[in-house]
Give the backbone structure.
Amino acid sequence: MLRRLVQLYVGLGLYGLSTAMFIRSDLGVDPWDVFHLGVALQLGMSIGTVIILIGAAVLLLWVPLRQWPGLGTISNVICIGLAADATMALIPELTSLPLRIALLVAGIVVNAIATGMYIGAGFGPGPRDGLMTGIHARLGWSIRSVRTSIEVSVLLIGIMLGGSFGVGTVLYALTIGPLIQICLPWFRQKPQVQKIPQPEQVV
């Protein structure tokens, strides 16, 4: 249990770090963060505050879908936003294009590792992933259709609100799935199997 908890919170912290890395690269962020940045720009709030508020709002959509949050779900809502704001204060704005590209690529890798860690800990999905699986379970739509519809919707709304869309957004969309598929088995917790002691042989 302790190992799973540590893995959960380290993963969520790294996810917030990856969000700050995307933003500081200034080459485009993932679809949900395009939306978060657009809302933050319109409301004059920090990105972390918006991530927390949007996460809580999405969690309310679980109610009609009869989804139940786990510890990981609630922690996701709070910790990623706090970590994003904290690391935004630590990472300076960059002007060098090679450094920005390196930060973007590193951010995608960190995001995949973070996702593998918090999902692999087994404390429940994040609010956005839970919305996807809830719609799938209640309406019978395919996971691919639900995921695509949600991501495209938040991306378009985010762009209209002034969120940061760019080559990084496209690169994230193309690479994050395969990278998570690689990373998730590294962190998926397996139940411990206790060995049954064998009787001593009689000589």
